[in-house]
């Protein structure tokens, strides 16, 4: 991974968009790019732009006072810019960061309004995300990636604790320290959430206990209601099934009787058709035609009366099925009425036989007996009236109308018999065709008698059908009033589900359960809902506390693992760092001895010297065991131990040796050196240039310098100039191409 280009726009003196392209690695070595120019040309602003895009927040390090100081402020000829933007483009083809593509763009943008944003590959991110990404790539604004003019001396004169932060990035543990800080923050937040959840649980528990007791008291009501529902299903289900079975049976019988009646009507109509055909042949007997016409009219009238009788009986049956209670009433027993009618039928047959024999005496006696029997039957029918109690006016009117219709039908029957006698009398002298007519007449009479029987049966079936249908409707209304929610399930009840159910035994149980439900003390309707809501809240909080406890354990394990990782990596890196520090110190000083010492942290003490007690939380969040880093350096021929006693040049070379050692053990993708060689003399500058060449095997360098030896070590040079408009501009040169041009 290496730095491919730097794009600057509106940052400090770079008012126009300026691009610094860096050479790719060549023959196993990274490029060294030199940035040169006179003082005040703005070349250090390039280093500041890199530090700024890497997330630097200190305006002091950026040589400014406030944020907008990094935005081009304008000049006499150029207006100021409204924003500053810097973009670093990294080549990631070696997949140093596996979750990114071949190129990674990091952008920082600041507006004069104060709004700012960070972008990774043109996607907006948080500063923390950017810092973590840079730490993974061993790049950071506080690390040795950008070493400014005063940083060399700061490394030397810094306190051990300040120096430790610098070494943490150098040893590659910064990434894990960031994760540790994030873990510590999560631990603190988790503990706070647990405390809040615990307070809420303690607040909820008393009220929840009270509500639970109230809801427990409702348990009996719930059980009784469930039992009532079950009993209602049995009771109403049994009644519904019984009525449904009876309804289907009656409906089947009604259909059969209706079909039989239709067949009888067709047979009767056929007989009538034949009789009318015979009538048309008897044009010589007008008296017979008149009698026959009257007979037909009587048949039509009686049929209409029969239909009206059926309608009236149905209306009365419906009214009775809907709860109209009638007291016992006087009526003619069907068996007695049938016997009387059969006697009349026998007398009619005897009369017919006498007519056929043309025995006038026998005919007279038969007519006398028939008249007497008819009068007796009429007398019985007229004197028998229903006596009702608690009947409605509509029922009484229907019953009276039905009695009148029945009486009229009896009179029509009597008149039919008389007309038939007239037909028989008029047919004595007709021809053989008339005999056929009488045969048809007798057959028609028999069919009429049979149809009357079927009419009675059909009438009874229709009444039963209407009654059961009305009972089912009444049962539906009763269920809807008692338990409307059970109506659909009761309609779907199957016979096997209510086998063995005795409604006479179940009904008292249902009444008792209903009474118990009504007697249970009424509870506020919102008590149960409040308990449910509060209980759900309680369970949620306790569940959250369990999750938080588990999360706390996980975070503590992660923290412990990070501490172990930091300690392990620091130990191994620190040993190698000491070795390389001695190596580069010897190169720069041509001998001498240098070493780094870790200062262990001490327990915090009170003024009286006693160790301060730590809270459980503080004990659970361990801190770094290393408090700082001390530097010991002894140039050749001297006995100096502390770095503070070195001269300015010696301190600079010591710091450069340390920085070179850091670059060796934990190389950053690139390092910016901003005039770090300014304090070196000519011989040491040559040694410094040799060190840069050696380290270019691991690190890409961008060197801002005035030093000729350093320039000679560079692969490419950028010259920075500034015109009268106060804007920095660049001139680039590849040294290899320049050398070839010189040779040519």
Question: From the coordinates shown, what is the CATH architecture of one domain?
Answer: 3-Layer(aba) Sandwich
Runs with pLDDT <50, length 5+? 324-331, 386-390, 603-622
Largest sheet: 6 strands, antiparallel
CATH superfamily annotation of one domain: P-loop containing nucleotide triphosphate hydrolases
Overall outline: rod-shaped
**Broad structural category:** alpha/beta
Protein name: RecF/RecN/SMC N-terminal domain-containing protein
Organism: Candidatus Uhrbacteria bacterium RIFCSPLOWO2_02_FULL_51_9
InterPro entries: P-loop_NTPase (IPR027417), RecF/RecN/SMC_N (IPR003395)
Pfam families: SMC_N
Model description:
Residues 254-361, 437-478, 531-572 form a coiled coil. Keywords: Coiled coil. Residues 2-728 form the RecF/RecN/SMC N-terminal domain. With 744 residues, this protein is α/β, with parallel strands linked by helices. Among the domains are: 2-184 and 566-602 and 620-743, Rossmann fold, CATH 3.40.50.300; 219-282 and 455-522, no CATH class. 61% of the residues lie in helices and 12% in strands. The chain has 19 helices and 14 strands. The strands form three sheets. A six-stranded antiparallel beta sheet has the order 2-1-4-5-6-7. Strand 13 and strand 14 form a beta hairpin.
């Amino acid at each position: 991974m290496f730095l491919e280009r730097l794009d600057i726009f509106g940052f400090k003196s770079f008012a126009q968009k300026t691009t610094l392209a860096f050479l790719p690695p060549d023959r196993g070595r990274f490029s060294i790019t030199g940035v040169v120019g006179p003082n005040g040309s703005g070349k250090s602003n390039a280093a500041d732009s890199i530090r700024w895009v890497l997330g630097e927040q200190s305006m002091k390090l950026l040589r400014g006072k406030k944020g907008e100081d990094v935005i081009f402020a304008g000049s006499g000829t150029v207006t100021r810019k409204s924003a500053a933007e810097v973009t670093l483009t990294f080549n990631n083809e070696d997949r140093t960061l596996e979750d990114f593509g071949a190129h990674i763009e990091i952008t920082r943008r600041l507006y004069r309004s104060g709004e700012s944003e960070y972008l990774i590959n043109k996607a907006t991110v948080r500063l923390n995300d950017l810092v973590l990404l840079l730490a993974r790539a061993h790049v950071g604004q506080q690390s040795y990636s950008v070493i400014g003019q005063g940083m060399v001396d700061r490394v030397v004169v810094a306190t051990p604790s300040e120096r430790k932060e610098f070494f943490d990035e150098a040893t590659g543990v910064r990434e894990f320290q960031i994760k540790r800080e994030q873990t510590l923050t999560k631990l603190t937040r988790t503990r706070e959430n647990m405390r809040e959840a615990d307070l809420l649980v303690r607040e909820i528990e008393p009220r929840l206990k009270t509500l639970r007791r109230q809801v427990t008291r409702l348990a009996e009501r719930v059980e009784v209601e469930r039992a009532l529902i079950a009993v209602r299903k049995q009771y109403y289900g049994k009644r519904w099934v019984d009525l449904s079975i009876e309804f289907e049976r009656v409906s089947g019988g009604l259909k059969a009787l209706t079909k039989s009646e239709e067949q009888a009507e067709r047979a009767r109509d056929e007989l009538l058709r034949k009789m009318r055909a015979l009538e048309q042949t008897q044009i010589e007997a007008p008296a017979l035609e008149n009698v026959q016409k009257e007979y037909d009219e009587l048949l039509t009238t009686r049929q209409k009366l029969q239909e009206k009788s059926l309608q009236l009986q149905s209306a009365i049956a419906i009214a009775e099925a809907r709860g109209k209670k009638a007291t016992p009433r006087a009526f003619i027993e069907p068996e007695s009425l049938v016997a009387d009618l059969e006697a009349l039928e026998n007398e009619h047959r005897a009369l017919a036989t006498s007519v056929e024999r043309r025995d006038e005496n026998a005919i007279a006696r038969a007519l006398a007996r028939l008249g007497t029997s008819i009068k007796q039957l009429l007398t019985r029918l007229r004197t028998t009236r229903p006596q009702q109690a608690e009947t409605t006016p509509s029922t009484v009117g229907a019953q009276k109308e039905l009695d009148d219709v029945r009486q009229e039908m009896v009179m029509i029957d009597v008149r039919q018999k008389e007309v038939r006698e007239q037909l028989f009398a008029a047919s004595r002298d007709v021809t053989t065709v008339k005999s056929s007519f009488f045969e048809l007449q007798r057959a028609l009479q028999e069919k009429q008698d049979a149809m009357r029987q079927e009419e009675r049966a059909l009438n009874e079936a229709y009444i039963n059908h209407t009654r059961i249908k009305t009972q089912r409707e009444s049962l539906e209304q009763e269920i809807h009033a008692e338990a409307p929610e059970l109506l659909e399930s009761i309609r779907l009840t199957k016979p096997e589900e209510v086998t063995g159910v005795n409604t006479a035994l179940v009904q008292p149980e249902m009444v008792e359960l209903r009474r118990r439900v009504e007697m249970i003390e009424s509870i506020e309707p919102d008590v149960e809902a409040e308990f449910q809501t509060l209980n759900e809240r309680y369970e949620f909080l306790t569940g959250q506390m369990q999750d938080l406890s588990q999360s706390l354990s996980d975070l503590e394990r992660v923290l412990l693992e990070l501490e172990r990782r930091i300690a392990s990596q620091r130990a191994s890196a620190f040993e190698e760092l000491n070795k390389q520090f001695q190596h580069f110190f010897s190169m720069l000083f041509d001998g001498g001895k240098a070493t780094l010492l870790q200062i262990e942290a001490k327990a915090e003490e009170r003024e009286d010297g006693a160790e301060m007690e730590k809270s459980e939380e503080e004990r659970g969040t361990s801190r770094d065991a290393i408090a700082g880093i001390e530097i010991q350096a002894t140039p050749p021929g001297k006995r100096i131990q502390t770095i503070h006693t070195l001269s300015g040049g010696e301190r600079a070379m010591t710091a450069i040796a340390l920085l070179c050692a850091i670059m060796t053990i934990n190389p950053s993708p690139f390092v910016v050196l901003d005039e770090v060689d300014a304090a070196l003399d000519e011989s040491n500058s040559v040694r410094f240039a040799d060190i840069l060449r050696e380290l270019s095997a691991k690190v890409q360098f961008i060197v801002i310098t005035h030093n000729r030896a350093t320039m000679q070590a560079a692969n490419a040079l950028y010259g920075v100039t500034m015109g009268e408009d106060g804007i920095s501009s660049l001139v680039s040169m590849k040294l290899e191409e320049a050398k070839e041009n010189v040779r040519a």
